[in-house]
Amino acid sequence: MDYSFHLPNSGHNFDPKSSKLGMWLFLYTELLLFGGLFLVYMVYRELNSEAFLLASFKLNVWMGTFNTLLLITSSLTIAMSITALQKGNKKLSINLMWLTILAALGFLVVKYFEWGAKFEHGLFPGMDHYGSLPLGERLYFYLYFFMTGLHGLHVIIGAIFILFVIHGVKKGTVTPERFSLSENAGLYWHFVDLIWIYLFPLFYLIH
Amino acid sequence: MSDENTVHITSYKEHISTWAALMLLTFMTVAVSVFGAELRTLSVATAMIIATVKATAVGYYFMHIKYDPKLYKWMMGTVLALFVFFMIMLTIDYLTR
Amino acid sequence: MTVDTLPYTTFYKAKKGIWSWLFTLDHKRIALLYLYAIISFFLVGASLGILMRLELLNPGKDIIEPHTYNQIFTLHGVIMIFLFIIPSIPAIFGNFFLPLMLGTDDVAFPKLNLLSFYLYVIGALFALATLVFGDGPADTGWTFYAPYSVKTGTNVTMSVLAAFILGFSSILTGLNFIVTIHRLRTPGMSFNKMPLFVWSLYATSWIQLLATPVIGITLLMIVAERVFGIGLFDPSIGGDPILYQHLFWIYSHPAVYIMALPAMGVVSEIIPTFAQRTIFGYKAIAYSSMAIAFIGYFVWGHHMFTSGMSGPAAIIFSILTFLVAIPTSIKVFNWLATLYKGSISIETPLLFALAFIFNFLIGGLTGLVNGALAADIHVHDTYFVVGHFHYVMFGGTGFAFFGALHYWFPKIWGRMYNKKVANTAFTLFLIGFNTLYFPMLILGIMGMPRRYYDYLPEFTFWNQISTFGSWITVSSIILMLANLIIAGRKGKRTTDNPWNGITLEWQTKSPPPVENFTKMPELPEGGPYNYPNAKKA
């Protein structure tokens, strides 16, 4: 290099505002990814409202409610962990993140039992009982598995994301001054919660 | 970086009150659904309204759109407007077939 | 000559070896990787197109079987749309020139940029792998309409996954550009002082970001249908195949503007440079890009007028479609007004820009014929539509793409091509292009359906003209690329600013150093197109 010249607006600088903006843009993409599914749900709901109603009785409201409360609480813990980090309380921050991951695992375990029960009844697309369901109910279960499955995948990704942040805080790359990663993990996790806030009433509460 | 980085730190108190409100709304929506089954469409509408209130609370407080620059509100608004437009056009198509 | 003659290292020579290219974080190198990949796929797609035109030389079978023909037009569509046009201008020229035009040294997330490129490569491999794996490439058309895409035995799953991965690459590029534009502008450059190419990339990026996920999820649904064997769009279980079309076009219509907007941005750069005159209606052009991006979301239904969509919905979509024409024509009038009383120097890039306007005008107006509800019933799914979108995509974006290549060639390689050969190639290209596609418009009006392997004898004449045009077109493209390749290796060294441009990329060396600038770039006074030597009107 012949020059020691550096632009003030370099793309290689660390810029928390860039990473936050980037994260939000990514969430908009995710929002419309689920958005496509919500559109499908909306149209098929219009076309088969009776069948959707009947099918929804086959889900366990209490398990759904429990999971909802779990996710909301995990949203609280991750939000508080960011506050803790910003205030310099690393230990509390890490513990709160572990709590969030614990809630994520709890959510997945409940989901596992819920799905397991549906499998036992042969309600998964392609199974024998599924084939004997009325037309609209098959669509309902198809969408149920597709949407909660995709959401479950996001829960797993979110938990892994938070694991990275915990690692970063321990290693010292995520600090009270440089908390972008933790903030972004938080945004992602809230987004996962946000999707569930809609999935829950749409599948469990439409009696 | 030092460019006017006045970070807003949301207080624990604000987080906890948001959480309490969300819990309350969840109980409400379950109650309406389980005990108000004969309301039918009305109960669906209530469920959606409550979900939207909850989503707004999560976005506004937990994701601190409240403390973000206006840009974020504009972007979010645009995205939602697009999605609502998709819903409206699809509904028009299917209801007028 | 060069502003200062201090020695510097170009980004080509900064590091050596194949790995320094494959794992580079330099936006300029990534842009060139894209360039080589995209041009290669363009040639593959073009060869498939030539094959189709050969088959259509005479009625009946000429060289290939009907089933192969179906696979070829599908692969042609998938390659040209997802591997060529959508990434072409943003991924190559956007990557290379966005940071230069903003006066910065890279995009906001250089690693993400490299990831986008590799997603592009993986997606491309998936698309090509259908040639080898399964029962050959999909035969559904690039639209993958359900229920046929679920029922056919060909390898739809892989083609669809290819489109999904390519979409992801496109989303990440868009995300990167938006953040770059928001955060990395040189001090003093407000949004209203950005070059118009940057504006068009900004609008494009928003479409990439907000439309692509919808098709991503829709294509996943098709995959799920094929894997589990149960149709979400299958009417026999209460589903609706038209819903697939809705979701497909919610993305794919805005995608048309992903293809067209950057091309308009290129034209908005070329015209003021070669007229040496301030662009007429800077704000009108900039904001009309945003308007096109926005309104572009509201018109997807015009692809479905004959599908069984409801009448009222069709009427609304038809009206909205006409609205898109307004911002587009605003641009055309502004470009023409810019040329008026300019000191025009007719160079190859300007010729391409003018051809863009000419072709895009035909493409745009025939588009309005399609958008008019009643007229569309007659021309829907005929060659008229094929002619129309090739005028927009190839005659518009394709010409702008090659125009951009000729415009920025001296900046990228620091050398100049043989202008006479370039002009000859351009002339042949324009003639060949119109000979190739104008007959399609006529054939469509006459009633020849699209995607047909065979046709009635009365269509023979125009089909043969069209095939003849395809030969001229391909020869001109070969001539043009050969000229550029030779120039890249042996062309005459050129100055840093051969066209007297004043946007920031012309203030640095040709080719640029790794850090893009060796001193702070200076914003031109009074806006990005305020040419100092412009004639006072």
Summarize the structure in words:
The complex is a heterotrimer of chains A (207), B (97) and C (537). Chain A has a single domain (19-204), classed as Up-down Bundle (Four Helix Bundle (Hemerythrin (Met), subunit A)), CATH 1.20.120. In chain A, 79% of the residues lie in helices and 0% in strands. Chain A has 7 helices and no strands. Chain A has helices at residues 16-47, 49-56, 61-86, 90-120, 128-132, 135-171, 180-204. The longest helix of chain A is centred in the C-terminal third of the chain and has 37 residues, at 135-171. Chain B has 2 domains: 1-66; 69-97. Chain B contains 3 helices and no strands. The radius of gyration of chain B is 18 Å and the shape is flat. The model of chain B has no long low-confidence stretch (mean pLDDT 87). In chain C, helix 4 (110-129) runs antiparallel to helix 6 (156-183). By secondary structure, chain C is mostly helical. Chain C contains 15 helices and 2 strands. Chain C has a single domain, classed as Cytochrome c oxidase-like, subunit I domain (Cytochrome C Oxidase, Chain A, Up-down Bundle). Chains A and C meet through helix 1 and helix 6 of A and helix 6, helix 7 and helix 8 of C.
**What number of structural domains do the residues of chain A give?**
1
CATH topology heading of chain A: Four Helix Bundle (Hemerythrin (Met), subunit A)
Percent strand of chain A equals under 5%
- Extended strand count of chain A: 0
Report the radius of gyration of chain A as a whole number of Å: 21 Å
Shape of chain A: elongated
The secondary-structure element order of chain B is HHH
Share of residues in strands of chain B: under 5%
The CATH superfamily of chain A bears the name Cytochrome c oxidase, subunit III, four-helix bundle
User: Average pLDDT of chain B, to the nearest integer?
Assistant: 87
- Residue stretches of chain A low in confidence (pLDDT < 50, at least 5 long) are none
Order of helices and strands of chain A: HHHHHHH
- What portion of residues of chain A is helical? over 70%
**Taking all residues together, what is the mean pLDDT of chain A?**
91
